[in-house]
Amino acid sequence: MGFSMNSKPKIVTGDAGYVLEDVPHLTDYLPDLPTYPNPLQDNPSYSVVKQYFVNVDDTVAKQIVVHKNSPRGTHFRRAGPRQKVYFESDEVHACIVTCGSLCPGLNTVIREIVCGLYYMYDVHRVLGIEEIRRRGLKVAVAGIPKTIDNDIPVIDKSFGFDTAVEEAQRAINAAHVEAESIENGIGVVKLMGRHNGYIAMYATLASRDVDCCLIPESPFYLEGPGGLFEYIEKRLKENGHMVIVVAEGVGQEILSESMRTAHQQDASGNKFLQDVGLWLAQKIKEHFSKKQKMTINLKYIDPTYMIRAVPGNASDNVYCTLLAHSAIHGAMAGYTGFTVGPVNGRHAYIPFHNKVVITDRMWARLLSSTNQPSFLNPKDILRDEETQIQGVDGGSHARCENG
């Protein structure tokens, strides 16, 4: 009957701390469903591959770096074709729904779903969306993570991300050439990233021409000691030019308050974002105009539509094919309410309920690359110093944890 967001997560436990975050199955709602042989058994393209079908008990570990005495931890069902399916080819109506805006590789995903259904499972009817859950029909819901921002941390990466980073470098290179060609030149590049700065961070690391990268996960401030303006002045005196990369979700709390857009939403229902790039560029101009210490030449580049409209590169196209086929195999095998993606290099079926806290060492690598400060508020720095002093006075020592 399909997947409901009110469904409870399926957690299966085993020996030695083994936990399976399972995905719903059609037999949870329709226990008497018959099964059929997988049509791939008769497909000559797959008959040459030994053990092509995935065992129903195969799982993929969420964490592969563990302590020797650690429990086995959380696992997900491995993606791939099963020997038995729960749909007959001639009874299947496939529905494809795309949400949000463009993304490199999106057309590849759609094409491979259509072609995969046709050539692997002999499904000829692929339609638009219909009301089906209300009628209690046999429906499997499979999701493919479509977010160019790479903000689903349980999977290795989202499709289109590699292409986006590759294309973002072109904008950064252009900003660097512009900034370098004039005295006190500043290039500001705004990249995608509503809630995280993966594209900005990876493009910065790949470019090696960026002096400062601002992302939503790491707040910053403009004025005062340790602020952005102080760092810009320092870099211009040292280098004569500077490149700043900013993710679109940075500083939205400040902008929302000043422009009274805190509760506005866009057409997709997402929080309306002000253009932080234009705002930041204007603030930088105002600061140096008031101080009259030096004349700056600032160029602002927003490559958003150029990045998301380009075709997927080779690695993204191959990845999109695997995602589409994994989703097809899962739906035909009767699984529902899942998204598909690579976990530690192996494609798995992940429940829609899954939520993960992001921890990553890449930000430390970026700080090392750009040599920018952390932009922590002076009050936070003072509080941290007092905490460390109290720890020393009390005979204790601080503990450091890495993500």
Could you list the spans in which at least 5 consecutive residues all have pLDDT below 50?
Answer: 1-5, 355-359, 388-403
What is the number of domains? Answer: 2
* CATH architecture assignment of the largest domain: 3-Layer(aba) Sandwich
Overall 3D geometry?
elongated
Order of helices and strands: EEHEHEEEEHEEHEHEHEHHEHHEEHH
Tell me the layout of helices and strands.
Layout: E1 10-13, E2 18-22, H1 26-29, E3 36-37, H2 44-47, E4 59-61, E5 73-78, E6 84-85, E7 93-95, H3 106-121, E8 125-127, E9 142-143, H4 161-180, E10 185-191, H5 198-207, E11 212-214, H6 228-239, E12 241-247, H7 252-259, H8 276-291, E13 297-301, H9 304-309, H10 314-332, E14 338-343, E15 346-351, H11 362-370, H12 378-393
Helix pairs in contact: 3-10, 4-5, 5-11
How would you explain this protein's 3D organization?
With 403 residues, the chain is α/β, with parallel strands linked by helices. It has two domains: 187 residues, Rossmann fold; 176 residues, Phosphofructokinase domain (Rossmann fold, 3-Layer(aba) Sandwich), CATH 3.40.50. It contains twelve helices and 15 strands. Helix 3 links the parallel strand 7 and strand 8. Pfam families: PFK (PF00365).
